[in-house]
Amino acid sequence: MKEVIVSGASPYLMPRDDPAGKIVFVLLFGALVLLCFFALVTLLAAVFRGQTGRAHRAVYEWPFRTMLIGAAGWLVFGAGAAWLYSHAYIERLLETEIRPGYLAAATIAGGIPLVLSLLGAAGLFACLGDRVAALRDKETSELRKLFTGSVVAVFATFFPLVGWFVVLPLLLATALGAGSRSLLR
Questions:
Q1: Which of 24, 18, 19, 36 is nearest to 154 (CA)?
Q2: How far is 68 from 16, CA to CA, in rounded Å?
Q3: Which of 106, 148, 158, 178 has its CA 20 to 30 A from that of 24?
Q4: What confidence tens digit (pLDDT) does each residue in 150-168 have?
Q5: How far, in Å, are 41, 70, 149, 158 from residue 181 at the CA level?
């Protein structure tokens, strides 16, 4: 009988000497993440229908301005959260002192752009779905457009280097800009 060396908590999830099992595990995990992300964006689009429509309109009518607003928002909130996190922990001689007020403020400053980006992502993905549906010359439902746009955006970020360092920051900036514009209008 062959001995199994395990790289994790359970030998049933991912044995170390089975490369095909690792590939299947990574593919299934990626599919699960994609499904959960699509479910979250669909829920946000259904619950916040007005904000999603305004975010879609902002991305469709002013894509560059929306992206610049989002990039400025990420810089402001990111710099504020980084400063607050850097002051949340004070190194002492033998211990680290944690300041909960700074830590809570940093978490809020980092969480605000994430929530606004999720709200804007629903509008951004609907806009991407509209453009893909226009290429196919077929009339499709809003849910299918949202699904198509989210799949296109997520798969575009999977490409090494270009997807990680160009497409993903542009999508995050545009989503934050669309989310903030949808709340301010």
A1: 36
A2: 45
A3: 148
A4: 889 988 888 888 988 999 9
A5: 18, 9, 20, 27
pLDDT at 76 over 90: yes
Tell me the CB-side half-sphere exposure of residue 95, using CA atoms within 13 A: 3
Q: Is residue 15 part of a domain?
A: no
State the pTM of this model. Answer: 0.79
Do the domain assignments include residue 78?
yes
Q: Which domain holds residue 75?
A: 66-184
Q: What is the predicted pLDDT for the residue at 151?
A: 86
Q: Which two tokens stand for residue 15?
A: 């044995």
Own/partner long-range contacts of 24-33 (Cβ < 8 Å, ≥24 apart): none
Where is pLDDT greater, at 113 or 95? Answer: 113
Q: Is residue 30 part of a domain?
A: no
Element (H, E) at 96: strand 96-98
How many domains in the chain? 1
Q: CB of 176 within 8 A of CB of 159?
A: no
Is residue 164 a part of any domain in this protein? yes
**How far apart, in whole angstroms, are the C-alpha atoms of residue 78 and residue 114?**
11
The token duo for 24 is 């299947």
| Identity of the residue numbered 105 | A
Distances (CA, A) of 106 to 95, 117, 130, 158: 21, 17, 37, 29
Does 36 have pLDDT greater than 90?
no
